[in-house]
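Problem 12. The chain below contains 705 residues. Write out its predicted structure in token notation.
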Amino acid sequence: MSVINKIRERSGWAVGVIAVSLILFIVGGDLLGSRSLFGGNNQEVGEIAGQSINYQDFNAKVDELRAQFEQQTGRAPSEQDLAQLREQAWNQFVFEIAYQEQFDKLGLEVSEQELVDMVQGNNISPAVRQAFTNPQTGVFDKSAIINYLKGLRNLPPQQQAAWANFEANLKQDRLREKYENLMRLSVFATTAEAQKEYQAQNSKADIKFLFVPYYTINDTTVKVTDSQLQDYLNKHKDEYVGANTRTIQYVTFSVAPSKEDSAGLYNEIKTLARGLGAAKNDSTFALQNSDVRVPLYLTAGEMPEQLRASIPTFSAGGIYGPFREGNTYFIYKYGGTKRDTNFTARASHILIRPTAQTDSAKADARRRAEALLQQIQGGASFEALAQTNSADGSAQNGGDLGYFKDNGQMVKPFESAVFGATSAGLIPRIVETDFGYHIIKVTEPKTNVLYRIAAIGKTIAPSQTTRDEALRKADEFAASVQTKEEFDAKVKEDKSLVVATAERIPEGANQINALTGSEVRQVVRWAFDDKTDLNSVSEPFEVGDQYVIAVLTNKTDEDDVKVDDYRSELTTKVRNELKAEQILNKLGNASGSLETIAQKYGAGALVETVTDVNLATGFLRSAGVDPVALGKAFGLKPGKRSKPFAGDGGVLIVETSKLTPAPPVADYALYKNQIQQNTSARTSFYINEAIKEAAKIEDRRARFY
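Solution.
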């Protein structure tokens, strides 16, 4: 009896547990990620200016943009389109929060009267002008806007919402424009800056220098330690910005179609050929069974070469093929002909262009063209002369232009000549166009015959057996390796595997080397998962037509820059410093002419001279553009020599032979304008970066998509 009582006492608790379990089973993913239920932070897409952006709000904006996209394009967005829509949604949040904060501080706004003026007043927005410009005439019609707005209430809700969104974007663009114009007004150049720029561009120097490149010392002879790299990094932290990235190595197991898959498809398409031949409604049968859409009516020029070669054998109801094009087999059923409204022809040409638009140059070009025409009429090869004389890209094909229609594809005189010909052959006159002088050979005369062709194209795809075999190999590899060392050892055993490296992958990456497609994101998310340790190996990921197994080899953190994050760059810098020390020690207290010093130094030392070099863009031949060397040269008096010093590419000794100061000018306005224009051109970028930095943006979208 006591057992029954205990069951009764705990039955309510048990029912509660079951109920909670059912709720978690149904919507567990959402609730477990919800901040409101568990106080977690899993649903936070990011943070802008201290304001959290949760997944639901962000996704709602993406869905809104998706609906607009579908209404405008009439199709669902692709994966690439979705990535762009998410970026657009994020930028809208940045604008609405970070930018708006700056607008509010300055009291910037767009009034209703201003918006009306932008849409239908005296200062209509360029976006509105573009939307209501007649595409046929290219004329903007203000009355079209007013009529559209009068009938807006009668339009479907989707179109009303689209217009409201359009106006909202107009306001945002105007606000940004006002803000950026204010910032541009704060950009100015002082007279001192303009004078400095003038001097840099117009002062000239003749320089003689000795140059010992760093590459003359073999890298393997200069040992660089980690402590040296760390010391260099500590002194140059501002030059090496931290970033959240991952580096992986990976192997792929291809899911390419096998010979059996190809043979199986060939047998399938032969079966389809019998069905296509017997089908009463062959166009519908072809549409239902084809992987590739082919127009029902084709000109000879639109046909693939193998089918075009079969035209002489065409008979009504005949099946032609299968023909293979790449990885697709095609079969065709011929169903008769009809006439097109346009004619199609094929021709080749030799184009002779005048060297200039003068009467004498044109006359010379015409004489050359006429001489070539006479050679061809005398039996010379048209194709050979086209390859050696034609000034057109078709020259490499012997002048062949392929098939074209009489619908304006070619310039009028050329088109008239080709479609005026009644048979194939050389046109016995020179044809002049705006491009020059043409010698034309009609290879296939005009025709307006359209062929009714019901086509089925089947693309070779790997069978499930082939996929299973590739997955088996990938699983077998993954099961035998747990660490980087085991990964490397296994690769050495299998010579068919090639290891690829992808360095410094950002968290939002949609591509890894040649790996593309939405499936790449699962590899990136694995690499950035907190549970993925260095040197750990992934399970197989299916990416396109291959399975990928990766090993995480490096992590970088934006808040903790380490030597390994920039090891290659740091090693080059430190090694060059050590090489500079060796070269400077070997040069010692150099004396005598630069040639004498170079001879004493030995192999690797160069002596060169440059004339009329300026400080702004000076190029020192073998030493390249070296700001340190240029600065020292312009700082010396003529006839003086610098001490040996380390430059960007090697050690130098500089002699200034001649120094020509920039002539004095009364007005530096031109150089002030140059500086201001160069700075103003980058204002939008600088503003955007400054606002984002001030807003302390944290973007966590990559954890969700």
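Discussion. The chain has four domains: 108-186, 204-239+567-660, 245-256+464-560, 257-461. Students who got a different answer should revisit the alignment rule from Section 12.3.
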